Design the sequence.
């Protein structure tokens, strides 16, 4: 006898006021009052990361119910993409409208984990807005894509505090999505989707027809 499928129940969830109330709606810059727009979002079991139009990253810890703020030095510019990763250490990668990419290695209260906030910068390869970020599961590799089609690979050595970056691929249209697993990088652009094999440096297109 075939089992009867249980009915699907739709639930409506209320806005996260405890999170939104911890983010200012306006900030004062000299004599000007600037409206703060929320521009990027990522979540996992430990954190909610929210990027803003003023270059501030708001990171809410779900276990401690605490909001922390991180920013880029220098020019205040919009954050366009954020990507969290929980591995041995908690990491968050941030991309901006001008192509800056930074990685924050977060402080943890757990024994043997990172005790000092550290930041790594992907130096000057991207020149346009960051549209996608992808981590390797162990946090040693970060891939970043921009709206001009450039994809940059950054190798991170968290113990030594080193980040080495290089351009690995250049597509003729904007990158819209990246995902990495088992030495294969999935790349979606406005025109096509490809598999980039990082060891062989080879490309295989998914499907044959370009996107319209």
Sequence:
């Amino acid at each position: 006898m075939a089992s009867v499928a249980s009915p699907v129940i739709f639930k409506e969830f209320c806005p996260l006021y405890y999170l939104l109330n911890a983010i200012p709606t306006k900030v004062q810059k000299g004599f000007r009052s600037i409206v703060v727009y929320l521009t990027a979002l990522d979540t996992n079991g430990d954190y909610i990361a929210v990027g803003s139009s003023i270059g501030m990253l708001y990171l809410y810890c779900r276990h401690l119910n605490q909001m922390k703020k991180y920013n880029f030095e220098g020019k205040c510019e919009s954050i366009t993409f954020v990507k969290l990763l929980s591995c041995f250490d908690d990491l968050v990668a941030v991309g901006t409208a001008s192509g800056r990419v930074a990685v924050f290695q977060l402080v943890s209260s757990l024994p043997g984990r990172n005790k000092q906030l550290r930041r790594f910068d992907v130096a000057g390869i991207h020149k346009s807005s960051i549209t996608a970020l992808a981590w390797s599961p162990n946090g040693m590799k970060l891939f970043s894509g921009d709206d001009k089609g450039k994809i940059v690979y950054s190798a991170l050595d968290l113990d030594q505090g080193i980040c080495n970056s290089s351009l690995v691929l250049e597509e003729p249209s904007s990158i819209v999505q990246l995902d990495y697993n088992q030495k294969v990088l999935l790349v979606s652009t406005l025109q096509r989707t490809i598999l980039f094999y990082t060891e062989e440096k080879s490309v295989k297109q998914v499907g044959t027809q370009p996107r319209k």
